[in-house]
TrEMBL record:
Residues 113-204 form the Heterokaryon incompatibility domain. InterPro entries: HET. Residues 1-39, 490-519 are annotated as: Disordered. This is Heterokaryon incompatibility domain-containing protein.
Length: 585
């Protein structure tokens, strides 16, 4: 990895370390400075390695390192030349109660680093421009990106940090291995920074309230994770003064600044402050990223690796369609979260259930209002003493045994409730773009649908059948079972979720051995869940239209608007719907 920019020792020694010049300093008998240095060297070496690895304990990297710092040997050498190390030597000589924990704390504080978040502009200094040099050397071009780099280093040094990191010159972009590691570790590096400095080049000091909200910094792909990952962040105007002269130690605690961020990005303060990288509810994170842009099209996907806690191969040249497809495939395959399938727009060549562009997530997700509890209970009571109770229990058992979605080799295996399409007719005179058509679609078991799409569909009806098969499906959402321990985890909790709590369906044998639990004396609680499921299945839902291919698999028909389906009669729908897993190309 390349050299990290050291800012030099500008701070006084850390607190609570006495020097020989202070009162009551008495030299420890029998301890020579040489032996003390040898002892401290050994402890320091171990402390630096410990701090370096603990800073990246959340990374899956096999060789965790601080962001592009020199190797640990260089860190050790640099620290041993610092004021802090010299004070440790003096303190060790004069104080018998200096513990290893204190030494480790001094090392940890010395290694704290600041990171830069900014918008690339013009000629930015690269690693090769500054390697082996000091950023303040007069031989370096003092204009453009170098001026920004120097100002960043000075700001970090004035804030008390010895180390600074900038993506322009701390990544060797000629090394594919280093680029790969950097892309996959960037979120963790920002998260473990002591301070992230955001430079707003388009916000002058004369800017009034709203300058941050209008800044192009909010529109860049990489700055999304650079904002949510750090614990402490400060915004600076283009003259390197604090934005709006706000001296809050952490601008994530500034209500006024966070309101501007919300106005610009839609991300509110509670979500930012408590953000944790996760694949859960991926749709929301994709929505936040949907209006952002990157210079290299693949980066719109790569910049989300850390946000979604995904580690994948970096392959510039594969284009956005494939890069985004690989990312979304990984999310579904590993988490079972199918919220990323909720989009409208142009389908991907990677898989028809995925979008070709991140912009397809700009529209809000299809979230229909849930049925109020006061309406569920009367419906459950009315069904309890009817034949629907047996049907509900059989349906519950069948859905409980349904496998989780699988996604591999660009093929999606999606468990769903499928309804055969019996009629497709084009609606004439509809107010849609000339290239798009609106169709009236009839199915077995559902209310009639209106679907607007850029694709030309085969028109058919009972008197004019077609050999091609179409189905409308409801992707299966396992949370409708209300299984114990299967609560939807918050995006923002900092507690680890076990596979048993979320993501891995409980074994069907956990509650019963098979068959209909009603007929085997199903407990009232289980019966209630089955009836509640039946009531909920009768509510409107987000649907997909699929067309069967010659080889038997299906492809999703992309639409301009959400398809909203609803079962006509949930009690008698059993013979009209098929619960199965469909393979989608």
């Amino acid at each position: 990895m390349s050299d990290q920019n050291q800012l030099g020792d500008s701070r006084s020694g850390p607190p609570h370390i006495k020097t020989p010049n202070e009162p009551n300093a008495t030299e420890r008998p029998g301890r020579s400075r040489g032996k003390i240095s040898q002892f401290l060297g050994k402890v320091t070496n171990g402390a630096i390695k410990k701090v370096s690895r603990s800073n990246l304990k959340d990374s899956r990297s096999r060789d965790p390192v601080l962001p592009n710092v020199d190797r640990e040997e260089t860190q050790i050498g640099t620290f041993k030349m610092s004021t802090q190390y010299k004070e440790l030597v003096s303190s060790t000589i004069t104080h018998v109660d200096l513990h290893i924990e204190h030494i480790e704390e001094v090392v940890k504080k010395y290694l704290q680093y600041a990171m830069l978040s900014h918008r690339w502009e013009g000629r930015e200094p690269l690693l090769q421009d500054i390697q082996g040099k000091c950023v303040y050397d007069s031989e370096l071009d003092p204009v453009g990106g170098m001026t920004k780099l120097r100002s960043f280093c000075k700001t970090a040094r004035d804030a008390g940090y010895n180390w600074a990191w900038s993506d322009t010159c701390c990544i060797d972009k000629s090394s594919n291995v280093e680029v790969q590691e950097s892309v996959n570790s960037m979120f963790v590096w920002y998260h473990h920074s002591a301070l992230t400095i955001v430079y707003l080049s388009d916000v002058p000091p004369s800017s009034k309230s709203g300058g941050l909200a209008k800044s192009a910094w909010n529109t860049r792909g990489w700055t999304f994770q650079e904002f949510v990952a750090p614990k402490v962040i400060l915004f600076y105007q283009n003259n390197w003064t604090l934005y709006r002269n706000d001296h809050t130690p952490n601008h994530k605690d500034s209500i006024a600044i966070m309101q501007e961020i919300k106005d610009a990005t839609g991300i509110d303060r509670p979500a930012v402050v408590a953000f944790r990288p996760s694949m859960h509810n991926a749709r929301e994170k994709l929505h936040w990223a949907s209006t952002r842009v990157t210079t290299r099209q693949e980066d719109i996907a790569y910049s989300l690796f850390g946000v979604l806690d995904v580690r994948l191969r970096v392959d510039y040249g594969e284009k956005q369609d494939k890069a985004l497809g690989r990312l979304l495939q990984e999310i579904v395959a590993r988490s079972g979260d199918i919220s990323s399938l909720d989009w409208v727009g142009t389908p991907s060549e990677f898989n028809s259930c995925l979008p070709a562009s991140i912009t397809s997530y700009e529209a809000p997700p299809c979230q229909l209002p849930p049925l109020p509890e006061e309406e569920i209970q009367p419906s459950v009571s009315s069904l309890r003493k009817t034949a629907a109770a047996d049907f509900a229990s059989d349906l519950y058992t069948l859905l409980r045994n349904t496998s989780a979605p699988r996604f591999a080799a660009q093929r999606l295996h999606l468990p769903c409730l499928a309804f055969n399409v019996t009629e497709v007719r084009r609606r004439m005179g509809s107010l849609t773009p000339e290239s798009h058509l609106t169709y009236e679609v009839k199915t077995d078991g559902l209310h009639d649908l209106l679907i607007t799409t850029a694709e030309t569909l085969v028109q058919f009806w009972p008197a004019r059948p077609t050999e091609r098969k179409f189905v409308v499906i409801r992707p299966w959402d396992r949370s409708l079972l209300e299984l114990p321990g299967f609560s939807t985890p918050s995006n923002y909790k900092n507690n680890a979720e076990s596979e048993e709590d979320y993501g891995t369906p409980p074994s069907p044998s956990d509650d019963w051995s098979g068959g209909s639990p009603v007929k085997q004396g199903m407990p009232d609680l289980i019966q209630s869940r089955a009836l509640r499921l039946l009531v909920r299945l009768g509510q409107p839902f987000g649907a997909f239209l699929l067309a069967q291919q010659r080889s038997g698999e299906y492809k999703r028909i992309a639409t301009d608007y959400d398809i909203i389906g609803q079962i006509q009669d949930v009690v008698s729908v059993g013979d009209l719907m098929d619960i199965r897993t469909i393979e989608i190309l």
